[in-house]
Amino acid sequence: MNYETFFETALDDLRAQGNYRVFADLERHRGAFPRATARGETTGDVTIWCSNDYLGMGQHPTVLDAMHTALDRCGAGAGGTRNISGTTHEHVLLEAELADLHGKESALLFTSGYVSNWAALGTLAGKIPECVVLSDALNHASMIEGIRHSKAERMIWKHNDLADLEAKLASLPLERPKLIAFESVYSMDGDIAPIAQICDLADKYNAMTYLDEVHAVGLYGPRGGGIAEREGLMDRLTVIEGTLGKAFGVMGGYIAASADLCDFVRSFASGFIFTTAIPPAVAAGAAASIRHLKASSSEREAQQERVAQVRAQLDSIGIPHVENPSHIIPVMVGDPHKCKFISDKLLQDYGVYIQPINYPTVPKGTERLRITPSPVHSDADIAHLIGALEELWAQCQLARMPLAAQ
Ligand SMILES: *Cc1c(COP(=O)(O)O)cnc(C)c1O
User: Fold this and answer.
1) Are strands 43-48 and 35-39 parallel, antiparallel or unpaired?
2) Nearest ligand 1 atom to alpha carbon 117
């Protein structure tokens, strides 16, 4: 086999399908988020409209101060796995902060949200004898990989469909161990799971629950504990999983659960045991971000206002976007080539950065631009974005919604 030809052909196929991914080479400016300078083929000033640093906490002075202080005090890396000299006081403090955020006895850190899902689901489902995992059809790749890695039996229930979930639960013996794995805010459609009803079913059929709150932590609930906090449900969930890399603006992942469950995963998860801990400065920055968002709701409120503004202005020019109760605005294009074309044009001609979301992140035919307004986008930023989309929609002859009668 000619290996290089194989790689080239595979990449050519991706290009032909419009699914080849090009990363925008951007340099973010501290203190000026969402502003950045493009350093790739396109150069110039850019406004970022697709960041998962949803509240701009990656630039927040409190977070940066905590990171600088920890860096100066502790140095760069953790120096090892948590087992071998890698546990620092910053990790211990951060886990306490996370347990408190979710009202759980304990929390356990991982190097990313991806790793936390992979390791925790892989370990729980793999080590509990005869465990069946009931997985929502739209779960994130990291959950799917963890479940697959566990080799446990898996049943996929229709997305957010309680009747289908119940039918699958009822088909299993009551005494057989079960784990229901799902998300609160789904990242691509921005819809939200019926958590209370899922917990009711879990009680009825004696199942554990595993909730990924990656797109909700920091953003919902009076202290940023997520949708489960907002709805008063945190104590009903067996495991709450989250990231430190999105709304908290830093990096890392975690689970929060009972002391024994966390200790179990700590003791048996390969993806926890055999990898170097996150740097102390990263842990300190994340803890500062969580602490700040526990006490301050102004960022959350401003974000929701911005989201409402962008939605209203999209409606006013008839650009179709998926209605949902979250902060994520999916603008549907429905074609991978057009989606990439619009994204390229936005960057080159308007200095607007919105990554095209194509297959395999979303199903074919549902290609979209995923807009994530933040508290730091101004009225002028919004006006510029809407003007750019209006022109490009005309240029690409994309469908518009009929405008409501005035
Ligand atoms: C991004 C994401 C993750 C992974 O979190 P990272 O910290 O980025 O690794 C997990 N679950 C969902 C739903 C995500 O969107």
Assistant:
1) antiparallel
2) 10
Q: Which of 367, 359, 383, 293 is nearest to 141 (CA)?
A: 359
**CA distance linking residue 398 with residue 333, whole number of Å:** 7
Residue showing tokens 């639960």: 169
Q: Are 315 and 305 in contact (CB under 8 A)?
A: no
Closest C-alpha to 82, from 72, 94, 69, 73: 94
| 25-67 pLDDT per residue, tens | 999 999 899 999 999 888 899 999 999 999 999 999 999 999 9
Bridge partners (DSSP) listed for residue 241: 212, 255
Q: Separation of 111 CA from ligand 1 center, angstroms?
A: 11
**What tokens appear for 96 in the block?**
């306490």
- Nearest CA to 284 out of 94, 72, 78, 56 is that of 94
Query: Does the Cβ of 117 fall within 6 Å of ligand 1?
Result: yes
Going by C-alpha positions, the residue among 392, 306, 299 that lies closest to residue 354 is 392
Question: Could you give the angle at the alpha carbon of 65 between the alpha carbons of 61 and 69, nearest 5°?
Answer: 175
Sole residue written with tokens 């986008």? 377
Cβ of 370 closer than 6 Å to ligand 1, yes or no, is no
CA of 184 to the centre of ligand 1 (A): 12
- ω into 34 cis (within 30 of 0): yes
Is this prediction's pTM over 0.85?
A: yes
- Reference 169, options 199, 124, 194, 140; nearest CA is 199
pLDDT in tens, 297-334: 999 999 999 999 999 999 999 999 999 999 999 999 99
